[in-house]
Amino acid sequence: MTTANNDVPVLMGLTTTEAPFIEQRKAAGELYIQQPYELYTEENHAAWAALYSRMAPRWERYANQHFMRGIDSLCLDPRRVPRLDDVNKFLNPLTGFTAKAVAGYVPAFLFFDCLRNRAFPTTITIRRGDKLDYLPEPDIFHDIAGHVPMHTDKAFADTLVRFGDLAHLAAEIAQSIKDPEKQVKKVESIIKAMARFFWFTIEFGLMKESSGMKVYGSGLLSSYGELAHCVESPDVQRFPIQLEWVINQYFEIDHYQPLLFWVDSFDHLFSLVGELEQWMKDGKLDNVSPGEPLVNEADLKSFIAAEFDSKSVD
């Protein structure tokens, strides 16, 4: 909310990168916030409606069966930006997960700790209506229409929780190292390995079903162009997932992905997180290949300075 020259309040909305409400919360040092639903403008709702209407037919064709059941379970309104309280009324009884509004970037350990506590950090802004195709940062469509339907599936939800537990192990390992230089080197490598695994599974994963190759990765499920491209294009390499390959494979975020991996099931994915945990204990994540993603200072500090008595995210 701001004022025009005649001092009449002007509603600014919750448009990504253009939301005064978000900037105010960040300036106040707030990370977990309430969704101010009254701030959404008709332009914001129109952007949601446009995104949803064009994605629905592609979900029917390319999304995995668990996602389609999840979309039905959440009862999302295709015409209006969802209220997180309404989403959680349908989501929480199924798997214990909730969508939790955040004001911006969540450092890596805190993000994974949220998953451990069955809370999903959720962006509340929505992209501009004239920028529907690509947005480098997440928005509420990516988070709610891309991620959250998968959280209605018990096996997938349990995998996220196990991944959150893995972050706690990484933080414990980090804090056990007394030499600062060795600590930073090892933790950067572990975070890089975890980020790559998350990227090639939770964000950009494929699943081989009896009906053919389907999509479960949320980055794909929220992208109109890439959802079809990732399944049909001959330019995309698709391989059965191999842990040693995934943790050493760099990725870039500003173009369609040329390399993707598929799993057989979410039980398969759950077992891979268990394997990743054992590799972490055995030191196999201590020196993964260089390259993207870069590990920023906030992510690094979030592991090194992590506290382990926060079993809830209030």
Short summary:
The protein is an alpha/beta fold.
Considering the chains and any ligands shown, give keywords for the structure.
10% strand, single chain, 314 residues, alpha/beta, two-stranded antiparallel sheet, Phenylalanine Hydroxylase, 8 strands, 49% helix, 4-stranded mixed sheet, disordered C terminus
Question: How many individual helices?
Answer: 13
What is the name of the CATH class? Mainly Alpha
- The CATH topology is given as Phenylalanine Hydroxylase
Q: Which sheet architecture does the biggest sheet show?
A: 4 strands, mixed
Question: Which parts are unreliable, with pLDDT below 50 for 5 consecutive residues or more?
Answer: 1-10, 310-314
Number of strands: 8
Tell me the CATH architecture. Orthogonal Bundle
**Rough outline:** globular
Tell me the distance between the termini.
26 Å
Strand order of the largest sheet: 6-5-8-7
**Helix/strand class:** alpha/beta
Helical content (DSSP H or I, runs of 4+): 40-55%
Mean pLDDT: 93
Spell out the helices and strands N to C.
EEHHHHEHEHHHEEHHEHEHH
CATH superfamily: Aromatic amino acid hydroxylase
Q: What is the percentage of strand-forming residues? A: 5-15%
Count of discrete domains: 1
Characterization of the model:
Helix content is 49%, strand content 10%. By secondary structure, it is an alpha/beta fold. It has one domain (2-304): Aromatic amino acid hydroxylase (Phenylalanine Hydroxylase, Orthogonal Bundle), CATH 1.10.800. The protein has a 4-stranded mixed beta sheet. Strand 3 (98-102), helix 5 (108-116) and strand 4 form a beta-alpha-beta unit. Helix 5 crosses helix 7 (154-175), helix 7 (154-175) packs parallel to helix 12 (266-281) and helix 8 (180-203) packs across helix 13.
